[in-house]
Amino acid sequence: MRDLSTLALIALLVGFLASGPVAADREVLHREQSLYHTIMVVAEPGRLCLQFSVRNGSRNQSCVDPRRPQRMVFSYTRMMMAALLLVPEPRTVLVAGLGGGTLPTALAELLPNVRIDVVEIDPRVVDAARKYFDFQETERIRVHIRDARVFVKRALQQERQYDLVILDAYSGDYIPEHLMTAEFLDETRRLLSPSGAVAANTFATSRLYDYESETYRLVFGDFFNLRVSTSNNRVILATNAPLPDKATLRANSRAWRAALGPYDVPITSYPRRMSTKVDWDTSKRPLTDQYSPANLLRGAR
Amino acid sequence: MTRRFLLINTLAFCGGFSIMSLELLGGRILAPWFGSSIYVWGSIITVFMLSLSVGYFIGGRLSLRAPSLAKFGCLFLIAAVILVPIVYLAEPVMVWVFERVEDPRYGSLAASLALFVAPTVVLGTISPYSVRLLVRHKEESGKVAGTLYFVSTLGSALGTLATSFYFVLWFEMDTIVAVLAGTLLVLGAVGVGCRGLDQHA
Known about the structure:
The complex is a heterodimer. Chain A is α/β, with parallel strands linked by helices. Helices cover 37% and strands 25% of the residues of chain A. Chain A has one domain (75-299): Rossmann fold, CATH 3.40.50. In chain A, the strands form 2 sheets. An 8-stranded mixed beta sheet of chain A has the order 7-6-5-8-9-11-10-12, sandwiched between helices. In chain A, strands 1-2-3-4 form a 4-stranded antiparallel beta sheet, with helices on one face. In chain A, strand 2 (38-44) and strand 3 (47-53) form a beta hairpin. In chain A, helix 6 (148-157) packs across helix 7 (182-191) and helix 7 crosses helix 8. Chain A starts with a helix and ends with a helix. Chain B has one domain (3-195): MFS general substrate transporter like domains (Growth Hormone, Chain: A, Up-down Bundle). By secondary structure, chain B is mostly helical. Chain B contains 7 helices and no strands.
């Protein structure tokens, strides 16, 4: 018995020592406390990451590979590009949540005529993206420092429309609950052009999955769920008009395959991973402005 | 510990509970129009503190004129009635402000002023008035006030906890506001109904 515990202790020590050098390779280039997060820029072997610290260590928001800056490091970032299967040539795009700016930068490179509005609540995130991730505001990419809900309401008031709305504001530890309600999704839907689509990067695990799925179903009817085995995220893809069929998705994926090569996006594999199957508990109530305890639902399991 | 003492303390506790429950719901009510940024909470807390200060002042003045349990109960009845419009007016008020005020800081401040001043001022009158009802000799005034602060602030703490941990998980916001109003209505009626206790005080 004693031998066993000694062995376990040795194994633990060895494991600890072995993990040491990895941690030492991590270099924090920037650390600051903004109104909303602790923002860190961390250099790791082969990648540079933007992190928001959370209770249990840090969570990567966005990473780039400095040797291949176009390569999308995270599977959920790549999955968001599936939006191009629903709207192959968007001319106007709204991105809620900047992170390191990977998505707006890639979309501007891929779509020569696109106009992109980015809405980000935290000006410090924009500063970090500019300084460390080569994010540039141009005539075609404009950044608005504002709460996404307020921006969307104001855009509706001004009767603006977008061919594509990307919701990427949920990836932190705290979910902005007013950005997950049926009312917000309906406002987003009304902001879409007739052939427009919304792509949302959200959670595949946790109890929230059922509630969130019901909320999307209430607003959009059928929608695509894109999931891959290597990610805890899922991407929801929904449209104003009826969803395109698989043949259209496959045709669009073939059209985009070559251009998306440098970004490492396996676009042709997405159509078969996009499902309209109702794989959640439909008895859960949709989230609304009246009832939106998203963070509590996510915590309590 | 007379029945009158218990009754007034219970009412003060529920007053404190309602104030903080409403304040937390305030953030939720404003979020769809003005976001949930720190300035939205800044607006709400400013408006609640301002309203409470005015309420304390008015409550102290009211307590000079023939204070009674009946009038104390009426304060709760008025608070209950004034809470109800929040359910129905919040949306149109916020639409009106949103269309006129571009900056969400001043928008959230204007909406908070329009929605929360009236009920919070009335709820603020409860504390000084209940001190007046319980103080019999000036020597015990500090002790009575201390006990009432203790009770009503404990109510505020529990109102904060219950609302943010559980109520928002179980109920819709309008339901919570309606239940708060209903509770204040019942308490006010009990206060008025027990006005006979004043004669033995």
